[in-house]
Amino acid sequence: MNEYRQKYIALKKEFEQTGQSADSVQALYEYRDFLEEQNTPEAAWVLADVCETLELYGSAFEALRPLVTRTDKKALRRLAKLASFQGTGDRYALRRPHGTARSSKMQKLQAALPHFRYHPDPLATAAFLISSSPVTCECCKSPTQIYYKGPFYTVANIDTLCPECISSGLAARKFDGAFQDEYCLEDGVTDPEKKEELLFRTPGYQGWQQEYWRVHCGDYCAFAGYVGYRELKQMEIVEEILDDPVCAGDWGDGKEEMLAAMVNGGGFQGYLFQCLHCGKYLLWTDCD
Question: Is the pTM of this model over 0.85?
Fold first, then answer.
């Protein structure tokens, strides 16, 4: 057994024995970062295991794919199982509890992205996907490794948009489209420029039903990702979410029981937002 796997086994044991504690999840993420910097097959096999444990199924598939041979039937079955998650990729993975440190490769990709105020980490939320080979943006016709995979309300049949065409507003103008539904934004924002930025220059997220954007302190919140009760507990914000009028008003006395039934990637899904001004977390939920 190589040293990479020995370390993974110890981390996974801690992860399981502590009930997926925030510290154990953080340790696995930091080990994932380390393994991504190693250029050996031994590290890559373990990287796939780490990613799968963290429910980073898209990343696990990409790590495993170059390693699998036609004669390795067990690995082929595993690859096929991971391929079945390619529609969601890493979207419903366990959240990284502390910081946003990444491998140098991911840091370079993130640095190359435009800044989206209302959706600050679209790689982590899988609003943008990373292609193994360049694809062509249907707006500017330029090759891009990072492309949009989210809602776009337009009569045109558009599959591939680059981050720059979304950020500049060119895609929305060219195809007369919007990335959010104008009638599914929470009330409370009076500045038309903020609304325009959200609708036409901000990548959206994908819900089971119609997506909805939360508002706080007179501004649209930043979309922080997909969550279940487990993720809220790891972030230690359950009480804060229970004070959210969406929970307090709509769920009544059984609000914590309702929240506890929410599973990331399940039929009862949570969508986390954070106020850009006071930092408060807010929630939106829907069902399949």
Answer: no
